[in-house]
Amino acid sequence: MRVFSTCLVLFIAGVCRIAAREALHPASVDLLSEGRILIPKNNHNGWVNPEDLTPMPQCIAQQDQSAWLSTITRCTSRQCTSHFGFICTHHQWLTQLSCLSIGFSANVIKGYLPYCSRSVLAKAQLYLWIRHVTGRTWLVDVGDTNGLQTLSPASLDEGYAVFDVMHAAPKCLTGSASALSMELFQQVVASCSFTSTTQHTGNSARPWEYSESLQSIIALDSETVGYNLAGRNIRYGNYFDKSCFCGTFSVDAKKEPCSGLGEIDVTRERLWMNATCGPTSIPKNWTDALNTTEFAYIPIEDWHWPKCITDMPKQLIELTGQCATNACQLNSGGYCKVVRAVDRACFCRDIRYNSCRGLCQIFETRIDYVKWLHDLCGNLQDWHGLPENWRQLAVPTPLDMIPWRWTLKSSKHSHTASITHSGSIKETCPSTAWKLGSLALINIATFLAAFIGRRPDIHNIARSFLGPPHPRCWFFTGISIATLQILANWVNVLLVQQTLGYENVPVVQLMLLWCSMPRLSWLTTLLSGVQVFEGMKFGTTTSSLFAEIILQVLSSYYMIRTVNYGREHDFYLRGMEGAKRATSAKSVYAGALLWLIIVIVVLVQLLQATCRRLTGDKSTAVTKWERRKRTKQNMVKQLMVLFNERWTWFEEKIAHYWIEKSRGLVPTSSMTSEEGNYTVYGTLPVGGERNQVSQKVSARLYVVTVLTMLLLWIAQWLFWAGFIGLSLDEFCPPKLGVLTTVWMAFSLASTTIGSV
Ligand SMILES: *[C@@H]1O[C@H](CO)[C@@H](O)[C@H](O)[C@H]1NC(C)=O
Ligand SMILES: *[C@@H]1O[C@H](CO)[C@@H](O)[C@H](O)[C@H]1NC(C)=O
Ligand SMILES: *[C@@H]1O[C@H](CO)[C@@H](O)[C@H](O)[C@H]1NC(C)=O
């Protein structure tokens, strides 16, 4: 001791320690190692230097240590360690090991054990100390250390938590005392704490010392409980044993430490206890009033507005500020992280569907708004802010799916209908069947006219009126046919306009729309074509085709508009899912698209044909095409080639049939060959190889033309049938019978002109 104190003056602590050790105990000291009782080797007949004893365990250091210290003190006395003859040259305070093993009796340990056995790790640490110092393998009763020799992570029943979770606990909880033991929260946590590996809290080189002034052994160091006792390494840090904490600390369900303090402390406290000790540690119905962002609160950063925010009233937008509050966001461990959030119930209290008008009630932005509103408030009890039919508002309505915004209905009609619920004065819209029927009637009229016009006697009568056909007449005839059709539409628009309540119909729009009605022009063309080959007429095909082109150009306005509208609103993919009358709408959009595709294909073919004719080197084009075909021979191409071959064969067949048929008629024909120079479709065979070829070309063109018109007719039927089904009350032409009659009459007239 004396040597040591001298040392302390002369050297810094570390050097001193080595010097002292070397002076006193040349032999090295075996420290505690697994499974063996180790006693310092420099043992003077059973007496050891107290500083060689293992440091104090954590659970003893956290309690009143007086009994512990006095036990060691009793076994410590001043001993002579160096003799010169009979004279003692060196005295030292040493502790007698055999005395310690008697001193640390079950009685002494008993007082410390309840606290030390809260955590299995702390108990194991105590056990190792006792075994080391006294050689005993039990603490108070034989067998009370079973299982402590072989700890594993599973020995911590409920696992452990990292100390950082204390930040998630509110002050009212960390400052409270356990309901049962009245022990403070912080103390309980301390008794259950451990570190990743055993650590020293003081002078690790000199854990014990005999203080002559106090006449007692004092502890200069203690060791923390390390998780390495469980045979596993964990990340550096402080932890606590959950089963130790939860078994010791309890919350009074009737008088929670944080209740009545408002804010979100109750939520924080309950979540903390639930996450640490599970739901049994807190009142049964605790989840009822949690202020968490699970549902009742929406974190500000997750808040979003619908697209129609520009049309939202200011007070609605300010509502988020008024309803903002603190709420708990659960982290992965189930603890609370306080965030700013919007109180859902508070916000929803003041909002309903009609709170926002304008954009919020128009088509896509309306759908977005309704979905937003439903997601936000739909699950709240007692919230009825959406109209009954909100599901229909959340998908495109039939009106949304009509590609234009004007409607054809009586302005009076809507008023009377809304005033008299009984419907006594209600003006009825023509039924769908009637609308479709009138469309069919017009077609049938054309059909009949085409057939009648084909009969030679009628034909001759008509001709006598109109005079003999002139070769160039097809142009004027075509114009006349088209004009008659347009005129019919115009007359009908006027008729509609004359009707009460329909004064404001958009004239041009309605006329254009009616131009897209399906007409049986393909049949007329077909029949007149047959006539051509029968030698009766030519030029008629051209004229009816010309009229058809004019009318199709006019109908292109609505067709293209429809396709474009459908594309803009995603109707061609999935925009119509779940919508009312979706089948009709699909028919409208499919019809318009089919129409457009046919027109584009025809135009492209026409362009190609023109180019080929202009450049004139058909052969090189073919070889080029052949070469390209060879380089890119994939499935699609092959199929196309196959189709083309079949198609050409089919065309050839028809052409052949007609040529054969007409060949017999050549002598009776009074044709001039000039005819073929400017009429593409009306050429007649005059004989000779050159004419044979041009006949073939004409016949093929003719077949293609009729087919194209047939397809366009189908597309227009699709469009119109769909439109009638889709619009229902939004398209109510008045006096439909009269209108139909007008159309039929004009159809008859134009067909007759066409066939002459
Ligand atoms: C409460 O804790 C349990 C598990 O201990 C967990 O499953 C549950 O989600 C927690 N409840 C809440 C509201 O956090
Ligand atoms: C929990 O239930 C008890 C009765 O069982 C009731 O008095 C108390 O108000 C409930 N607490 C909450 C938050 O609903
Ligand atoms: C949630 O917050 C509101 C308002 O701040 C408060 O009135 C209510 O008591 C809180 N609920 C809980 C369980 O803390």
TrEMBL record:
Transmembrane domains' residue ranges: 587-607, 701-724, 736-754
Name this protein carries in UniProt: Uncharacterized protein
Signal sequence bounds: 1-20
Keywords: Membrane, Signal, Transmembrane, Transmembrane helix
Biological classification of the source: Eukaryota, Fungi, Dikarya, Ascomycota, Pezizomycotina
Entry annotated with the keyword Transmembrane: yes
Species the sequence originates in: Clathrospora elynae
